């Protein structure tokens, strides 16, 4: 019997997993699958790229195939892109069983979604904001199926349990049955997540299992990931970026560049485009169709570089990504773990380079303490290389980009979009609470 069947996974699903070259269970899958099949609530912490989706997906799909009734499972996740990715995985795994999966996220047709919910799909994959909209505004017919779900999954649980999702999460919880099984997963377990143990345990059910794999080697990032930093003055960051992405070692790599603000994402995308790089971007100020197209271009390798905010830092599984650059250092060490975890997934090798200015030293120390590892110094790009190869043309490209953005009123568009969203009540998480550190990138549903 194959590895997954030994853990209790159904034969049809074992075959579907094998067709995706998922044959030997990872540590988190070995820990979670039997316990979830036995009926336990499960809180799972395991590094980025370690297969947490299958860790909850395989047991739920096994149980579903034994009794495929109603809306069987609800999976909540913080971003639209992640909801779509999980839905793709569930649809692919359950294709031979005619699985019906519904994606309930902001930016898409709400009436169409309500009709889908009425038809009782087997699984609903949702962002909390949009699901809360349906709960508040749709008729009983639409949400009745949700009152009987057997499984609730919180994917990227620490993010879902943070303040900015609190109101919407409560609305979702309020209609779910208390006798459901709850599965909670993240690469960065925090106290909010750990505290769920007591809350879940209060329901007089089998013991809640908490499994944190990070504790085994005390390092919070994958073994196959090399992390380094380069110390640079603030005003030459773009030139360093150009030098690094065009360095012979990197010029063919698929790269994600993380920035802290949507304005920077747009500026860097334009600057790199003026420098003839195949580049695209992804951030919360983009329209939904642009977001979908941009991600598609990057996955298909039509664009080699993706410039993104923390909207993309969690969960996205793009196996071709070999290098992650932190153009801006993240405030929160958990964001660092998720960002660099977009590479070195499923045992592959990957690399991350962080740009450190004199303002970031404190952040780096906190990150190193949190991940249990020091960053190496990145030595491949010297000041001379930057000055000779990149400085003049990058400065020109940046100036042109800034002028374009000003004449197109980039800031204005953002304000109008925000006003529109507020008027339509679509993205109400913005109103609930803004992150304290002024970042405008982490609340989009
Ligand atoms: N047992 C396995 N063997 C080989 N590959 C696997 C296995 N399980 C999952 N994978 C693959 O590993 C990749 C990462 O899985 P997944 O996206 O579930 O990671 P994750 O732990 O949720 O990461 P993150 O914390 O970043 O969300 C996916 O491409 C998945 O298909």
Cα gyration radius (Å)? 22 Å
Taking the alpha carbons of the first and last residues, their distance comes to 41 Å
Strand residue content = 5-15%
Q: Let me know the largest β-sheet.
A: 7 strands, parallel
The low-pLDDT segments are 426-445
Strand arrangement in the largest pleated sheet: 3-4-2-5-6-1-7
- In one word, what is the shape? globular
Keywords: ATP-binding, Helicase, Hydrolase, Nucleotide-binding, Nucleus, Ribosome biogenesis, RNA-binding, rRNA processing
GO molecular function, one term: RNA helicase activity
GO biological process, one term: rRNA processing
Organism: Saccharomycopsis crataegensis
Describe the structure.
This protein is of the alpha/beta class and 445 residues long. Helices cover 45% and strands 15% of the residues. The chain is built from 21 helices and 14 strands. It has helices at 3-6, 11-19, 27-37, 52-66, 80-93, 110-118, 128-137, 140-143, 157-160, 166-175, 191-201, 214-217, 237-245, 262-274, 288-299, 333-340, 361-371, 383-389, 391-408, 410-424, 429-432; strands spanning 42-45, 73-76, 101-104, 123-126, 151-155, 181-186, 209-212, 225-231, 254-258, 279-282, 305-308, 321-326, 350-356, 376-377. A seven-stranded parallel beta sheet has the order 3-4-2-5-6-1-7, sandwiched between helices. A seven-stranded parallel beta sheet has the order 10-11-9-12-13-8-14, sandwiched between helices. Helix 15 links the parallel strand 10 (279-282) and strand 11 (305-308). Helix 7 packs across helix 10 and helix 14 crosses helix 19. The radius of gyration is 22 Å and the shape is globular. The relative contact order is 0.13. It binds adenosine-5'-triphosphate. One of its GO terms (cellular component) is cytosol. This is RNA helicase.
